[in-house]
Automatic annotation (TrEMBL):
Belongs to the PPR family. P subfamily. Pfam families: PPR, PPR_2, TPR_24. Residues 1-40 are annotated as: Disordered. NCBIfam families: PPR. PROSITE patterns: PPR. Coiled coil: none annotated. The lineage of its organism: Eukaryota, Viridiplantae, Streptophyta, Embryophyta, Tracheophyta. Residues 170-281 form the Pentatricopeptide repeat-containing protein-mitochondrial domain. It comes from Oryza glumipatula. This is Pentatricopeptide repeat-containing protein-mitochondrial domain-containing protein. It comes from the Eukaryota. Keywords: Repeat, Transit peptide. The keyword Glycoprotein does not apply. InterPro entries: PPR_rpt, TPR-like_helical_dom_sf, TPR_mt. PPR repeats lie at residues 186-220, 256-290, 291-325, 326-360, 361-395, 432-466, 467-501, 532-566.
Amino acid sequence: MAAVWSGCSTSFSQELPPHPRGRRGGDGARIHPWSGGAGIDATTRHAEAARTVVVFARGRVRVCRAAAPCVLEPDVAGKEEVGVAVWGMDDEPPVADGHRRHGLRRRPVRPAAVEEGPVAAARSAASASASAAGSKSEVGGSRLHFLEERDEEMLSRRLIKLSQSNKVRSATELFDSMRASGLQPSAHACNSLLACFVRRGSFADAMKVFEFMKGKGMATGHSYTLILKAVATTEGYFAALKMFDEIEESDKKNVDVIVYNTVISVCGRAKDWRQVERLWRRLGENSLSGTLMTYDLLVSTFVQCGQSELAIDAYQEMFKSGIDPSEDILKAIIASCTKEGKWEFALTTFRRMLSAGMKPSIIVFNSIINSLGKAGEDELAFRMYHLLTSSGLKPDQYTWSALLSALYRSGRCWDVLDLFQGIKTKHSALLNNHLYNIALMSCERLGQWEHGLQLLWMMERGGLQISAVSYNHVIGACEVARMPKVALKVYRRMTHRGCSPDTFTHLSVIRACIWGSLWNEVDDILEEVAPDSSVYNTVIHGLCLRGKIRLARKVYTKMRSIGLKPDGKTRSFMLQNFATDY
């Protein structure tokens, strides 16, 4: 139990003689504050008792003679209460609630005349620490208390409880009072107080506690973890990295893998994968083995930064260390492999996930199906699709898009149209522009302009916003089928609906018109489009191939007059037919 002396303007100026029971009056009579005394009336005795209290500190007895009445208060932090013990002149035991029999309730009205001994020294040290911190303290200038309890272990347990309860002021006052009394809190208690300051965002107070621990040689790996998090939050990850280098150089024995994980996490959030890789290598150089958290941080950071090779290296090192990967690590590896086109490694990781009893999500299935489709492995893609449905999952738009793309890349355009028809019949709500465009691409490759027009009409009827890409596929199908007039109608429909044609639109419709001998329409399109070298070169190539040399020379002259440069093929055509007058 701590004997608390606070809020009192005092002057520790008089030491009592060894007799503990009272003092002598001028006539030799012994005066007791709580009992009658010879030669002094009751009023005088009560006034004397109100001004005199004995405080025990460092084995000496001092008398506080207050120039004004004072109040003895418990530790205050929120609604907490701490037991207070106050002793009278005659060594009476304290009352249970911590107040004297004649407890005074008024606060001091005069400042202290003199502060001596450890109180003044500790208060000066606390003020200097707060000034040096350079930032606002959570508790300001804490009060100091004389502690009757001298057991460091018991006081440390009390400090731990206060810190865990986030009672910052009381914890700080107890910590400072222990220091002022020559008592040293345990490392666990200091870490609890440090964690409390970090949670509250009081960086200055956290640094004060950390410097105390560092000076006393009490800092542990947990201390370093806490302060590095605080530094990263307050001053940035680079300052935390610099502090880590200093800590590692001065106290390498207490830098464990958890401290490394903290710094790796800080650098990972900053997307600095080079520093993460450096820390990973240093971890092995210092003969420290990574944990599951270490490899989780490494893989996730490397995947987010697009470093798939490093992610796979960390994943394989984890297996060599005998650590079973978590589901998050396996998902990240699959995502990285499918993005880089390493579908074989992705399949191996997927099988490991299944053998571990994990249930892949729809995102994992879609990622692998898409990777297989890009690699032209359409059969494996559909096996994954059947596994998806047998797992109780329902395919979504990304699933169908990946399957349609797999068929298209394998050259199975008719199968694309058949699958699209099945989706339209059974899952019409999932149809979107991307699925329509894959089907239109197949129509273009097959020259199925009628089917393409039907799909375009379905898109308009379904209220979908048709892009220039969709119109381009239909015009391209008309070009392949040598249907220039239909292509021209689609082009007019496109402009009528307010969809701006792009360069690919103009090239496709011009080629269709040239092969359909629609020369006037070609001139009209050239008048409509903005000057573009690729468009003029395409017109000249088509005219020369169709034998319209004079018309080609006319377009060539116009092209040079507006400042466009012909390509090599155009110049070659012009040189070959320079003397021809058609």
